[in-house]
């Protein structure tokens, strides 16, 4: 069994597996090299030969316990026919949402639009020893995808004031996304994903109707993934009540963000925990790195724990710092 499954399934606490969110990305010179010659990010996600190479880059360098596929949560809107562009120094930019166009898409067409992602997993299976490492497939949670699909750009500066004005649009999207996110999960599992992670990067923006936007849609995906026999990790970034989330949604593991004090969770959460460390700590010196990383390792030493960050690794992070981080986690007793 892989180290992560030992944690998730056997509740083992004598090992701390490690992988990092956004481990295949811009802090790696070899990724930047490929990206230089491939300015269209969506095309790169749909190039299974290059996306395989990128997925394996951090595994080769650091020997992480899991490979997460090089793709993006916004490939779901793309698969549904809403065009997505990634602009330099700006981020994602989606075209106007036309709900009638979305309603025309069937599962076959959606699967065809995203087929290189499934091909990527089939290819990865040939290069990754699945007895030793996991192959993580992923999706965006319905709420976070709706945020991008309606807002069209990153909500980092807040949501447009009329975001909630069209309730029937939001209700329609919740239904469509439940169906197609499940299709995307199923296709990834059939192609070889051994774990699914659900990214709800903007769940911190939900201020009311938690059942409607957070609990119900996530529970539906968690139950579905479990029914396929695959563990499922949830990352509800920025929520204030992780305990309630875990009680209602019951994922196989929860990835905590860095705004939550992990000490306040240790006695409250019974399921395995992943992550937590502020990615900015990786921009400081090795001494501070050791102190901060050890805090998490010590705190969770009797709890099934997978080392990860509280959000994606920052592009400015130095390779040597990641090497040091891996050393600290591997040598911790
Ligand atoms: O070179 C570049 O400019 C591309 C940067 C980049 C990369 C490397 C983007 C654009 N996406 C990715 C890959 C990616 N995205 C992965 C696979 C690789 C890995 O994890 O190692 C994953 C899992 C994601 C997930 C993702 N995409 C999330 C959820 C996690 C998170 O960080 O919160 C989100 C919100 C996105 C949207 C997205 N993709 C890219 C950008 C710049 C953004 C927008 C972020 C924002 O709104 O600020």
Please describe the topology of this protein:
Elements: H1 3-10, H2 29-36, H3 41-45, H4 48-62, E1 66-68, H5 75-79, E2 84-87, E3 91-94, H6 99-104, H7 107-113, H8 115-127, E4 134-140, H9 142-151, H10 167-191, E5 195-199, H11 210-227, E6 232-235, H12 242-249, E7 253-256, E8 273-275, H13 286-299, E9 305-306, H14 319-331
Parallel strand pairs: 1-4, 4-5, 5-6, 6-7, 7-8, 8-9
Antiparallel strand pairs: 2-3
Helix pairs in contact: 4-8, 8-10, 9-10, 10-11, 13-14
Bound molecules: coproporphyrinogen I (1CP).
Question: Can you give a write-up of this model?
Answer:
By secondary structure, this protein is α/β, with parallel strands linked by helices. Helices cover about 45% and strands about 10% of the residues. A 7-stranded parallel β-sheet has the order 1-4-5-6-7-8-9, with helices on both faces. The longest helix is centred in the middle third of the chain and has 25 residues, at about 165-190. It is globular, with a radius of gyration of 19 Å. The model has no long low-confidence stretch (mean pLDDT about 95). Bound molecules: coproporphyrinogen I.
Based on the coordinates given, report the CATH architecture. Answer: Alpha-Beta Barrel
Oligomer: single chain
**What is the general shape?**
globular
Strand content: 5-15%
Which hetero ligands occur in this complex? coproporphyrinogen I
Largest sheet: 7 strands, parallel
Number of domains: 1
Q: Regarding CATH, which class?
A: Alpha Beta
**Protein structure class:** alpha/beta
N/C terminus separation? 21 Å
Main β-sheet, spatial strand arrangement: 1-4-5-6-7-8-9
CATH topology value: TIM Barrel
Average pLDDT, rounded to a whole number, is 97
Radius of gyration: 19 Å
User: What's the SSE pattern?
Assistant: HHHHEHEEHHHEHHEHEHEEHEH
Low-confidence stretches: none
Helix content: 40-55%
